[in-house]
Amino acid sequence: MSRDNFLLFTPLLHEVAASDLDITTIVNPIRKMVRRTEFIAADVNSINLIEQTVTIAHGVDRHIHILGYDHVVLALGSVSHFRGITGLEQNAMTMKTLEDAITLRNRMIAHLEEADPDCSEITRDATLTMVVAGGGFAGVETVSGIYDFMESAVQTYPNLSPSMLRVMLIHGGSHLLPELGPELGNFTGDKLVARGIEVLLNRKLIASTPNDVTLDDGRVIATKFVVWTGGNTAPAQLAQLRTESEDARVLTTRTMLVEGHPNVWALGDCARIPDSNGRYYPPTAQHALRQARVLAENLAASLHGQTTRELSFNTIGQMASIGRRSGVAQILGYRFSGFTAWFLWRTVYLTKLPRWGKRIHVALNWFLDLFFSKDSVQFMSFRAPGQGIPEKGSSDTLESRASASNSQGV
User: Fold this and answer.
1) Which residues pair with 46 in a beta bridge?
2) Which family does it belong to (predicted)?
3) Domains of the chain (ranges plus CATH)?
């Protein structure tokens, strides 16, 4: 069972937000991928480990089902961890779901539409200030996508220019992309700065309001646009199994059985799976793919009373796109940067995307992107159903339209 009836290819999520790819190119219908499996599109409300049941909400009216199990596999992923920062959860966008990417794209366009008229001249600077907090892979790729899109789209607005844009990346460490080390991290920072993105290192966001963010050095940045990519944690449904680590992932054995539960398995972003060196596998797609294969074999072996095997896999490498046909990569210990890394990034992820039809669509989108500017059409209206001309004395602002959009969903 899954909340969505599709599999989302998250490595390309920022390209949907940046209008490099169409929405449907990075999703695959689950029913087409697992035709011999009974599938239920539902929310997992809770898991009862004692009674061995899973409570789900299903259908338009979200009616409740209670399903029993002999074995259960936990692959609930992760959710954004706001680290208790004042106002952040209420005011920041995230980049984890397809809905997030659509919301981010719509908000970028809404800010351009808000800033263009002469009546917005006083608030224009704050409206065109975009802040991304968190300098890991998600943050770097998101801020690059935002800048690419805004720089291209702003040219269609007569009262705006690229020089009015202020795109910022805030990171608490001494260099970006800590997973790749200081050399590639500093290269990435230099590339972003050269393009016009402000990179603030050794700085943390400590508060957020609808109109500004506050940093730990006391600086207040006027902005209505904040994206948080600064951390993840296990979802609330796994509270009874969470560890006390910062990411609260579920601790398993090397065979991916949850500690203390002989019929509960876990993998992916929600699991802390130890490797042979006593460390834990990182929550990345390449590891999740290997985990899935081994877990499936172990589950089948367990059902037949056979011996299970331990997961053993070494990280092949990690890559990131930093915009304008430039990237960074570390593959089998070798480090690449620039166009070579970017081309490698696109090639690898194109081959990893499920189903040939989707690969062809993505390749075609990338080819057309070489010749045409980005499309600044919103995927959905920021005006709520039935909302006409505002009554006298009411306000029709960016905030009210964004609130209406969020209440509708995607």
Assistant:
1) 55
2) Belongs to the NADH dehydrogenase family.
3) 88-232+317-369 (3.50.50.100), 234-312 (3.50.50.60)
